[in-house]
Design brief:
Largest sheet: 4 strands, mixed
Helix content: 55-70%
CATH topology of the largest domain: de novo design (two linked rop proteins)
Radius of gyration: 26 Å
Shape: elongated
Order of helices and strands: HHEEHHHHHEHHEHEEH
Mean pLDDT: 87
CATH class of the largest domain: Mainly Alpha
CATH architecture of the largest domain: Up-down Bundle
Strand order of the largest sheet: 4-3-5-6
Structural class: alpha+beta
Low-confidence stretches: 299-308
Number of domains: 2
Number of strands: 6
Distance between the termini: 81 Å
C-alpha cells in the first residue's frame, strides 16, 4: 500500500540519517568527556574552540552545551533508527516509520536552528573559528535537509513548514533565554593546561642545553601543538625552558613581545636569535642546539650573524 511504499522509499535516507546522528553523538560525547575529565586547550587549535568548551557560553544551568548535543543527537538517532530494528517488510516497520517522520522533521529543524545560534555567537561574540562547532553545525544542517527536503519525510509541504517552523521557534526561544541568562563578565586570563608527563633523562639534558643557550618557546594556551610540545619534554624538563604566552587573553600574556619578534605561528622556538616555527621532536631540537640544523625562518630584518 501507499504507507509501505513511502516507508520503503525513505529507508536509504533513514539509514544515512541514523549514521550521521550517531556521528554527532560521538563528537559531542568526546567534547563532553574532554570538558569533564581533561582540558579543552588540549584538543583545541583556536581560541574560539576553547571559549566554546569552557567560556561563559559553554553551559546552561551548569550543564555543558555539548551534553545537550549528546541528548539531541541521541534522540534523533533513536527516532531514525527505531524502525530499522524491525524487518523492512513487516507492519511494525511501516508503523514506526510513519510515527517517527514528523518528529524527525521537528527535531532536526530545532537542532539546525540552535546550531545557527551557536555559529552567530562564534562569529559575532567570540570572533574566532571552532572546527568542532562547524562540524556539528554541518551535521545538523545535513540532518534537516536530508529529513525535510531530500527525503521528504512529511510529503505535505505545508505540514513540513509548520513542523520545521515550530522546531525553529522553540530553538530560537531557548537560544534567547540562554543568551540573556549568561552573565556578562570579563573572562579571567586563561592558563595553559598542566603538563602531566614525566621527564626522561634525554629531555632533561636537552632542556638544560636550551636553558644555557637562552632558548624561548612562544605559544598560546589554546594551541594543541604547544601543549603536545610541552608534554614531549615533561613537567620537570619544561620548567627549565622559558615560555612566552602570546595569546592576548592568556595568563601572563606577553603578546607585544610576540609581535615584536614577528612570531609566525605557535609553537615557535627562538634559539640563538633564530626562529624555528612548528612542533618539533627532541632529536630536531638537539640538532639545532648542536648547530647541525639551520633555521627555517628569519624574521624580517633579523641579522644573519644571529642565525648561524
Amino acid at each position: 500500500d501507499e504507507a509501505f511504499a513511502r516507508a520503503t522509499a525513505f529507508l536509504p535516507v533513514r539509514r544515512v540519517l541514523t549514521a550521521l546522528a550517531l556521528f554527532g553523538v560521538g563528537e559531542t560525547t568526546f567534547l563532553t568527556a574532554t570538558k569533564a575529565f581533561s582540558t579543552p586547550a588540549a584538543i583545541c587549535g583556536t581560541r574560539g574552540c576553547v571559549d566554546v568548551l569552557s567560556g561563559p557560553y559553554s553551559s546552561f544551568l551548569g550543564i555543558p552545551l555539548s551534553l545537550f548535543g549528546v541528548l539531541s543527537y541521541g534522540a534523533f538517532a533513536a527516532l531514525a533508527g527505531w524502525p530499522l530494528a524491525a524487518p523492512p517488510t513487516s507492519p511494525a516497520f511501516v508503523r514506526r516509520d510513519a510515527a517517527t517522520r514528523p518528529l524527525m522533521v521537528l527535531l532536526s529543524a530545532a537542532m539546525a536552528a540552535f546550531s545557527a545560534y551557536l555559529l552567530t555567537l562564534l562569529a559575532v561574540v567570540i570572533r574566532s573559528p571552532c572546527a568542532y562547532c562547524l562540524t556539528s553545525a554541518g551535521v545538523c544542517a545535513a540532518l534537516f535537509l536530508g529529513t525535510a527536503l531530500i527525503g521528504r519525510a512529511v510529503p505535505d509541504a505545508g505540514a513540513t513548514a509548520r513542523l520545521g517552523g515550530a522546531g525553529a521557534v522553540a530553538a530560537a526561544a531557548l537560544s534567547g533565554v540562554m543568551f540573556l541568562s549568561t552573565p556578562v563578565q570579563a573572562r579571567p586570563p586563561s592558563a595553559p593546561p598542566p603538563i602531566t608527563t614525566v621527564s626522561e633523562r634525554g629531555a632533561m639534558r636537552l632542556a638544560k642545553r636550551l636553558e644555557e643557550q637562552g632558548a624561548t618557546m612562544f605559544g598560546a594556551y589554546w594551541c594543541s601543538h604547544c601543549y603536545a610540545q610541552k608534554q614531549l619534554f615533561g613537567e620537570e624538563a619544561f620548567a627549565r625552558i622559558r615560555y612566552v604566552e602570546c595569546a592576548k587573553d592568556g595568563a601572563q600574556s606577553q603578546s607585544s613581545l610576540c609581535r615584536e619578534k614577528k612570531v609566525p605561528g605557535y609553537p615557535t622556538w627562538e634559539i640563538n636569535g633564530a626562529l624555528y616555527p612548528g612542533e618539533m621532536d627532541l632529536a630536531d631540537l638537539q640538532n639545532i642546539v648542536d648547530g647541525k640544523k639551520p633555521p627555517t625562518y628569519f624574521p624580517e630584518g633579523a641579522p644573519a650573524a644571529a642565525t648561524k
